[in-house]
Amino acid sequence: MAEDLVLDTIIRDWVLIPLSVVMVLIGILRYFISKLMRSSTQAPPGNEAVGAKIFKTKCAPNFESFESKSRPS
Length: 73
Known about the structure:
The protein is 73% helix and 0% strand. The protein contains 2 helices and no strands. The protein has helices spanning 9-37, 47-70.
């Protein structure tokens, strides 16, 4: 009553094999694109202090105004 499901060789050769090859190539392409998008250069050591100073100078006026409002004179 139930017949075995058989894959036609023409479908296998012209659809499944090229589709599998395309999927592998897309995976390889995604790998290299993500590798190119990652930053390959690292910041030289010592830049953390410069970044902290910039952050403090940008935020210092805000902290001073907050402290002067919260403290009674």
